[in-house]
Amino acid sequence: MNPIYDYNDINSENDFYEDYGDYEVYQGNDEIYFFDVWRYCGLLSVQSILPLVIKLLVSNAIFGIILPNCKSESCFHLVSGGVGVYLISEVKSFEGKYIIVIYFLISYFVLLSSQYVGDGNRKRLGIFAKLALIGSLIFSEYLLIDPAIFLQIRGILMVLIMKVLSLVDETVERKTSIGILQYFGYSLCCANILFGPWITFREYLGIHSTRRRKDIFWILGICKSLILALLCLTVSNCWSTYLIPDESNRWLLAYRDALAFRYSHYFVSYMAESGMIAAGFKNPTLKDGSIWSYTIVSPMEVEFPTSLSVVVTKWNGPMHLFLKNSIYQPTKRYGQFAAIMATFLISSFLHGLEVKVSVVLLSLGLFSYLQAKARTILSSGFSACVKIKSCKQCNHKYKRDHWAVKISLILFSFTSIIHLAYLGILMDPQSNDISIYEKWNNLYFIGHVIMFFNLILII
To answer: For residue 174, what pLDDT is reported?
Structure first.
């Protein structure tokens, strides 16, 4: 079966995802057993994605094995981009492939033009280039490209635009130039062309200079990420509905729908991780050089968050780094709140400015900001260590191990989980015909009630 590109992940760089309604095959049965779920849903979900998985991993593994033989940098860029072009063939629409080529050429023209202007105009051109590239995604989705086709290539275009935006910073701020081969290899890098994640140009070049030796731990790293990806896929498609059936109360159903969405994101993230490892990428911070790992998402910290800010940073580490460096830091001079909202606004633009996605992202930015401010005020007012991050040298009267502080931290964690369910239900593809207002009204606007209490504390 061929993948259906209907994935609406708000913080993954890719839309390659197949969400079959396999559970409906046996959902009407009076008794549903574990092996029924696996046979009629789990197994079918895994089988449906296997052709894409095999193509991704085999292509990147070949690239990773060939890499040490690419002595020259030109050879490295050609192989990286060439394998990436091969993987783009997964896009079924010819028009979609054509649009990717157009974006590739126009983006390089924009990048090239920023290298041949005077220093006085270079920074202004850089800002204009960023706005034009981001705006082109929205313009293309709503005015130029058929929505069904755009959905197939949205993830690829988003990663491509993010790479070009970071290259604009390279050329404008560091006054460096990027050759066509460098751009070809980096922008279409086979390791992250389908599932992401965004990587810096320096990290991309680093894989050629280090030339890590592939061994049994490399294979184990790929297998671990692949197993976790497929497990998350079955949780999203099957086990969430099996464990929390439709007869459950509204709160459990909201948690279930949000859980299914989160696990679909984990699936994409672990697939991206397996592709990166297969190509030879690994976390540079790993102390044990024999371990092959490339962390994109931290599910445990998202599922059991100490704060909404933790969810923001751990949901997609590479994209968080990109937004922090490219959007948050440059706009921080206008105030923290303005910088946060600008960051989430640009993030929604990168995702195509789809209404539900934009509402989720902007709400998450607002909720996380108010929660952090409320905790800071409570920490100062009661001399209690309840900030998001624990103090390195705590001078509070009530420290992290005090029973009242522990209860407060549990409450903040619980409200963060409520927020995840409250925002996550908007992303349920099975209820697209239900408005945002109806979904939130069904939960008594609990997320906004919590926000209101945080706002009172701040005022």
So the answer is: 66
